[in-house]
Structures are given as structure tokens and as C-alpha cells.
Amino acid sequence: MKLALVTGASRGIGRATALLLAANGYRVAVNYRQREAEAQQVVEEIQRQGGEAFAIQADIADEAQLMAMFHRLDEEDATLAVLVNNAGILFQQCRVEQLDAARIRQVFATNVTGTFLCCREAVKRMGTHHGGKGGSIVNVSSAASRIGAPGEYVDYAASKGAMDTLTKGLSLEVAQQGIRVNSVRPGFIYTGMHADGGEPGRVDRVASAIPLGRGGQAEEIAEAIVWLASDAASYVTGSFIDAAGGR
To answer: How far is CA 126 from the centre of its chain?
Structure first.
């Protein structure tokens, strides 16, 4: 059985992705930072459906915790085949003129540095030049990287822009090592993250401006992620799926 790691998998897109990967036969490592009970619920739901999963705590902004997580994965009989870099943070909506350095550092520590380090460790385990069997990395970016999120989350959007550059550059670095690297850029999706930014009803507010006329569901994004991770996308690397309802 192949092993898949999904960061930030206790809720939203990460949760939906973990469930779908398990349904497709992967043993899933359900990473969480703080929501232990929710992560365990994801594991239990996978197990009820006949799949295999386990929860693993790590704040990916902390390199020591991140390394401990990968060392835990090394104890598994299954080899790491899929990494989904889904963990990300944002803060209260504000304009750039209201930002401070501490907030920017926190956003980039998780969304950029943490993602880079997860990629680094995955490549060391997947790459044929390291004795690995290849694999797939899928980065969960955001339509904000294209739109900029003015008046709301320009810092978050910029961090996702950095993730997009990572996706393209890393895909070219490791294409000859059996590793594919792709990205999904979700638009306005019904997840708990909007409450983190201070506006739980944000998706409903902007729905009329989305060409398809509605917000998206986490399960719809998971379908794109799991397709990119699968052998069905074996000739796809360095690519982006914009799952944003046409926006």
C-alpha cells in the first residue's frame, strides 16, 4: 500500500483530500497542528469506510516538528508516494498599510517555508537519485495568487504566489527523478478558513461575482488534487488547475 501525507488535513480541503485518497487505496497520514480531535475524526471516518489512516501532529512552520513528522513516516512499511501541501494560514482581513512584520513572517513561515521544507523531505524519500520509487507532490495554492486579494489578504496571496513559483521550479528540478509536482488553485470554497479571516460568510457575499454563480465545495477541490496525484495524470507536471468557478 502506498503512503500519502496531507498537511492541514483536519478540516476543509485537507480533510476532503485525505478521505478521497483513502478511498483510492492510499494509507493516509492526517497531519494537524492543533485540531487533534478533528484529525482523529478524519482517521475514524476513513477507517469506518475500510481505509487506513493515522493522525500525526506537527506545526510545519517549526522545522523540528516537521522533521519529527517525516521521521514518523519513515517508520511505516509503506513508502511515501504522495505529498499534498495543503496546510496554510491567514489572519484578519486588512489592507497592506495595516500589516506588520510579525504577521507577514507568520504567514510566510507556514505557507512558504513550511511548504518548501515538506517538499525537501518528500524529494529525499521519493527521488530515484535517493533510491526512491518516485512520487507526486500537489501544492494547494489559491486563486488569490493570481488576483492579489486586495483589501483582504495580500500577504496570503503573496505567499501563494511564492508557492506557485516553487511548483514550477521544483517540477523542473525533479522531473528526471520520477517526481511530478503540480498545483491546484482553489477559488472561493466553503471552508472554515474564512472564519479565521473574520468573515465566515465571505463565500456567499462574493458568489454573485463568480461566473458559475456559486462557491465551491472542498470535495470538488479534492477531486482535482487526487487526480493530479494519481497515475491518471502521469504525463502532467509543473501544471496548475484553476478550480475557481471561472474567476
So the answer is: 18
Q: Name the residue among 102, 119, 199, 107 with its Cα closest to residue 160.
A: 107
156 counts as catalytic: yes
Q: What is the pTM of this model?
A: 0.95
191 confidence band (pLDDT: 50, 70, 90): confident
Annotated active-site residue in 153, 156, 190, 235: 156
Kindly report the CATH number assigned to the domain that includes residue 158: 3.40.50.720
CA angle 9, 223, 174 (to 5 degrees): 75
Structural domain span for residue 32: 3-243
The pLDDT score that the predictor gives to residue 237 is 98
Q: How many domains are contained in the chain? A: 1
Percent of the chain, pLDDT > 70? 98
Cell of 188: 472561493
Phi, psi of 49 (to 5 degrees): -90, 5
> Environment class of residue 178 by beta-carbon count within 10 Å: exposed (0-12), middle (13-18) or buried (19+)?
middle
